[in-house]
Amino acid sequence: MLKRNYVIDTHTHLGYWPTLKKCENDLIYSFNNYDLSFMLVSFDNEEYKEKNHNSMHFNESLLYLKNFISRFNGVGMLIWVPYGKTKVDIAFLEKFIVENRSIIYGLKLHPFLSRKLVTSSRLNPYLDLARKYDLPILIHTALDEYSYIDSVKKLADKNKDLTFIAAHLELGSNHLHALEVLKDTPNLYGDTAWVEPSLLKNIKEMNLIDKICFGTDSPIDGKDTLGEEIYQKYLKNSYKLKKSDFDKIMYLNALKIYKIKKENLLDRY
């Protein structure tokens, strides 16, 4: 197995699976058990509420996540942006960003849960904040009416000064169209959450190694989400990328895209 230096998981959550406290414990177990060097966490405080779904006020969720992150080294925040029905106090959000900029690494959007395309004008105040504070934006992409990667491309093309990351490279697809979109969109990147590592062959052939970063959706499948075969193949470099390419996928691209300082990484070796 190729010795790895660092691993950054750019796509993790706090949420209510099955409870918020259990999710916290699972996430930290995963972080430590799989020797991650850094992880980015968003609070999955979704807008689309099914029966008996737990939630908290947006402002409270920011403070909750801040408190969670403050207890651990090697953990950073992505601010989950509810741009659908939820009303957000933009002034409060901007004040929160200013006061906590050192632990905030980007914004997170989930079009399916917000039930709106990312081309909606409701997103404009958040784009302004991303621009003002130099924050990349991670966006859930999938084969549903709100989450196609083509909508993300429209957003990226219209906002060429911002950086976007297509989570899942269009979940549920074979990801090949998503790779074509990445190739054609300079300010759009992707992550590996639930992306079969066999796609690394296509990524390499299309010269897209510099545009992909490791992410897992942890702990959506519990504390051993990273123990799933799909992620073990990444962690063990089962497709035998050369070390320079392997390091780009596992941490170097994340340093660049999310502007994480290398000195903030935990050295597990």
Structure report:
There is one protein chain. 36% of the residues lie in helices and 17% in strands. The chain has 269 residues and is of the alpha/beta class. The two termini are 15 Å apart. It contains ten helices and eight strands.
**Helix/strand structural class:** alpha/beta
- Determine the N-to-C terminus distance: 15 Å
**Beta-strand fraction estimate:** 15-25%
The overall pLDDT average reads 94
Tell me the number of strands.
8
Q: Strands of the largest sheet, in order across it?
A: 1-2-3-4-5-6-7-8
Rg result: 17 Å
Order of helices and strands: EHEHEHEHHEHEHEHEHH
> What is the helix tally?
10
Parts with pLDDT < 50 across at least 5 consecutive residues: none
| General shape | globular
- What characterizes the major β-sheet? 8 strands, parallel
How helix-rich are the residues, as a percent range? Answer: 25-40%
Short description, anyone?
The chain is an alpha/beta fold and 269 residues long. It contains ten helices and eight strands. It is globular and about 50 Å long.
What descriptors fit this protein?
269 residues, 8-stranded parallel beta sheet, globular, 10 helices, 8 strands, alpha/beta
Secondary-structure map:
Blueprint (H helix, E strand, L loop, with lengths): L7 E7 L5 H14 L4 E6 L14 H13 L4 E6 L9 H10 L4 E6 L1 H4 L9 H9 L4 E6 L6 H10 L5 E8 L4 H9 L3 E4 L8 H6 L6 E2 L15 H7 L7 H16 L11
Parallel strand pairs: 1-2, 2-3, 3-4, 4-5, 5-6, 6-7, 7-8
